[in-house]
Amino acid sequence: MRDISHKLAFAHDGAAARYSDVFDPNNGTVQARVALGDRALLDRAVEVAKAAQPAWAAVNPQRRARVMFAFKALVEKNMDELAHLLSSEHGKVIADAKGDIQRGLEVIEFCCGIPHVLKGEYTQGAGPGIDVYSMRQPIGIGAGITPFNFPAMIPLWMSGVAIATGNAFLLKPSERDPSVPVRLAELFLEAGLPEGILQVVQGDKEMVDAILDHPDIGAVSFVGSSDIAHYVYSRGVAAGKRVQAMGGAKNHGIVMPDADLDQVVNDLSGAAFGSAGERCMALPVVVPVGEKTALALREKLIPAIEALRVGVSTDAEAHYGPVVTAAHKQKIENWIQTGVDEGAELVIDGRGFTLQGHENGFFVGPTLFDHVTTDMQAYKEEIFGPVLQMVRADSFEEALALPSRHQYGNGVALFTRNGHAAREFAARVNVGMVGINVPIPVPVAYHTFGGWKRSAFGDTNQHGMEGVKFWTKVKTVTQRWPDGGASGDSAFVIPTMG
């Protein structure tokens, strides 16, 4: 059995009092254990980061970008190894694991252009002989607390921008699938990143609280459930930190009567069931507009869902694999029962799904509910599994109101051929990320990722220029070079630019 330690925390002394099991979700066995760090470990890691960060911040942006270029090449070279390691702990199929890594690499590509985005503003002649300019400087030490569902992408979203802008970064990955973040940190070192700039500190709530309370950590980025996101945001801000905390979601797909239903069904199959639904940008709610649309969509959805192949994560023909833990499998199946108890029509039941030879694996079959209503808890809350719920709407306005009024506001999609309807929807829907005939509207890396309402706490989004702003602080300089003339009493009044 492998031990996953804090070997990328350069202050680690090799000792650990507590461990957590890491499972192989394909067969339910324990394949490794991860050492859980404490406040003392974090204190030592912060001291190492404090010693290393000033020199890294002084490295010019071009040289920091070269590390990003070298790291990108190393990740691409080791893609197969990383994808298999990711799949073995998370359970997502290999192709999906590679997509996880690739979406993270796209942010690294953005970071390769850090010299350009760090350029400040300059005004010559703002006043008599006075110039004004601004510069972006690193926060100092940042931290990222990342979830199990994207063990490569989200750590790269956070660490790439934080490091490229000159910060030291402490990464606390999920203890459920902790190996890929460690391997990525090793590749950063191989790419030329100085020791101490990126450290991986494993842990659970004790480590999270230590990060939120530590006075030398200036900014914290988090992705997880909404309740924990609110906790992280509140505790971090109370400690004087800059915090971005991304929470849960209940993304809706609105299907207009003029939509291409074959394309909709194809998109829904991937968006609702891909990665076993363990995505904050999954599409677990479909809203057909009009009874005719609902009946036609249902008729096409049922055979498409029944044709989905659930398999082990190494099955190249599988559409998705197991969920991450036995506890999460049970949670999903409990939500399915809740939907039944609340009166929704269970059209396809994914409970009790097993694979021959993998009977102890954490598999959940694809599930479809129809006639779901907005007062049901199974609709209100995030299930985070391969469960699609159909909520019928009579009109465009009713459909628009569903995601707009929901407690979550991460993503939404509209399927239509009508440009006016699309324009109205995009402008009016109360959700942070919108797809028009795009089922999973995750923005490209040079734009920015972030939801609204209980899907995000804080004022700044992930990656893109929003990420650069989060991991830096602005310094503005007003300068004058005297020409030798007398200044009189002007020093005693507030300066103006007249």
Automatic annotation (TrEMBL):
<dbReference type="GO" id="GO:0004491">
    <property type="term" value="F:methylmalonate-semialdehyde dehydrogenase (acylating, NAD) activity"/>
</dbReference>
<dbReference type="InterPro" id="IPR016163">
    <property type="entry name" value="Ald_DH_C"/>
</dbReference>
<dbReference type="GO" id="GO:0006574">
    <property type="term" value="P:L-valine catabolic process"/>
</dbReference>
<dbReference type="InterPro" id="IPR015590">
    <property type="entry name" value="Aldehyde_DH_dom"/>
</dbReference>
<feature type="domain" description="Aldehyde dehydrogenase">
    <location>
        <begin position="19"/>
        <end position="477"/>
    </location>
</feature>
<dbReference type="Pfam" id="PF00171">
    <property type="entry name" value="Aldedh"/>
</dbReference>
<dbReference type="GO" id="GO:0006210">
    <property type="term" value="P:thymine catabolic process"/>
</dbReference>
<keyword id="KW-0560">Oxidoreductase</keyword>
<dbReference type="InterPro" id="IPR010061">
    <property type="entry name" value="MeMal-semiAld_DH"/>
</dbReference>
<dbReference type="InterPro" id="IPR016161">
    <property type="entry name" value="Ald_DH/histidinol_DH"/>
</dbReference>
<protein>
    <recommendedName>
        <fullName>methylmalonate-semialdehyde dehydrogenase (CoA acylating)</fullName>
        <ecNumber>1.2.1.27</ecNumber>
    </recommendedName>
</protein>
<dbReference type="InterPro" id="IPR016162">
    <property type="entry name" value="Ald_DH_N"/>
</dbReference>
<keyword id="KW-0520">NAD</keyword>
